[in-house]
Amino acid sequence: MKRSVLNLLLALAMTASPACTGTEAATDAGPDAATDAGTGTDAGTDAGTGTDAGTDAGTDAGTDAGTDAGTAERRIFRTDTTQNANLGGISGADAICAAQALAAGLEGEFKAWLSTIASPVADRVTQSSGPYVLVDGARVADDWNDLVDGSILAPINLDANGVFRRGDIWTGTLATGASYAGDDCEGFTDGMTGIAQCGASSATNAAWTQNITPACSTVLGLYCIEQ
Question: What's the whole-model pTM score?
């Protein structure tokens, strides 16, 4: 009887043992599988460098674009028309420049190189870090500072179509870009009485913008500068 009980207990023990191997397999497979699967995290981290690449690319592109825009050439021309100092004020002079640029097929915004006592040109036009050129590409100044240092590299004697023109220019502007304070023909709205500053389109010294002060009834041209 005792032997029968002992044999029964042994049989039960042998039947239970194989089930433990399932636990061991699960234990072993679990860490290995988790570790292997963890390479997905590594892959995700590596893939995340796409964010860095995108950021770097965006930053570089933005910086380069800003730099290029800042150093773009700005064109200057003189008008092919002349009139007395009743230009319709600064807005009227700007409109003349815009119309002549448009007629010549020049893209971009153009304003008159013109100051009144109350509004110096240096305060209302773009002060570019890039070069100023004639419409044929001839360099007038290396940048804004060079434009207002008392001399320029080439006379501004071409119109918007590249045609050579002679004659003086209404400017109201000193060589520094400041306003001539003596008189301004009532803000360039009076073509009858008073005087105003003019420049010589044949000059490369300060006289290009600060030459003489003719009567407001004098018929002169304008300089137009790209923004």
Answer: 0.70
